[in-house]
Design a protein that fits this description.
Blueprint: H1 3-16, H2 34-56, H3 58-64, H4 66-79, H5 94-100, H6 108-125, E1 148-152, E2 157-163, H7 165-173, E3 183-195, E4 198-204, H8 206-216, H9 221-228, H10 237-250, E5 254-259
Length: about 260
């Protein structure tokens, strides 16, 4: 390895891993020690990553404010150094970090807000695909409906929130003062997807959340209706299932419908 390549490698380790070997290659200035001079690069690197996190989590940043968000961001940079050349993926682990690292884990609304923003970002970046139209359903005979299986759109995902983070997110998005963070008695069941070019989310009832999760795993419509019958009026299960399916199709949530074997 050439001296220049070695110096580059030591410089990189000094920034990414805190290795001080590179300090032997740096001279003190008349006014500052080498540790301070190199520290400028270390701080600038971390600040650039925190700036990327601000872009990915604008409303979490708004909720925390500049000082608290930057403090949290630098803690995340230290705990989870960047391992991908694309900054888009750097903050993917933020929800889990906020859930497990104190003092942030003492405030579960933070991890919920980060998880919601991550899901919306992922929906925006998801692959393109055709969507099922209501007219497509006309090709299936009534007797075939019990065997219908559904393919979710690539942008669709589910999220369970333990707090009122969704309401806080909406308030911040609308430039309103959010309510105080609270833990919900029952988790909020969210469905996130991209409609045209806009990331969306809505809250599902426990019944619809169950049906979506099962449908996404390939459970056919007839079995879904049998499962719905355990939630409410058995005689109305098929009608409720058809209503949920109608909503999914009009929202562009499905990319294929087929008759299973």
């Amino acid at each position: 390895m050439s001296d220049f390549a070695r110096q580059q490698a030591e410089f990189q380790r000094g920034i990414l891993d805190g290795d001080d070997t590179v300090l032997a290659e740096i001279l003190d200035s008349p006014r500052e020690k080498r540790e301070t001079l190199f520290g400028v690069y270390r701080y600038a690197y971390g600040s650039r990553l925190v700036e990327a996190m601000r872009n990915d989590h604008e409303l979490l940043h708004l909720y925390l404010g500049d000082e608290m968000f930057d403090e949290m961001g630098h803690a995340y940079v230290k705990a989870r150094p960047s391992a991908h050349p694309n900054l888009r993926w750097f903050s993917q682990g933020l929800p889990e970090f906020l859930k497990s690292a104190r003092p942030y884990s003492d405030h579960p609304v933070l991890s919920d807000l980060a998880a919601l923003e991550k899901a919306l970002n992922d929906a925006f970046d998801a692959a393109e695909s055709k969507v099922v139209e209501l007219t497509d359903m006309a090709r299936f005979a009534p007797e075939a409906w019990s065997g219908l299986s559904f393919q979710p759109h690539p942008s669709a995902s589910r999220l369970e929130l333990a707090t009122n983070a969704a309401a806080i997110w909406l308030a911040l998005k609308n430039d309103e003062t959010p309510s105080d963070a609270t833990r919900l008695e029952q988790p909020a069941h969210l469905l996130i997807w991209r409609q045209d070019v806009t990331p969306m989310f809505r809250e599902l009832s426990a019944e619809e959340a169950m049906m979506w999760d099962e449908a996404a795993n390939g459970t056919p419509f007839g079995v879904l209706c049998e499962m719905l019958a355990t939630y409410d009026d058995p005689d109305g299960a098929a009608g409720r299932g058809a209503g949920f399916l109608h909503g999914w199709i009009t929202a562009g949530l499905l990319t294929d419908v087929s008759v299973g074997s």
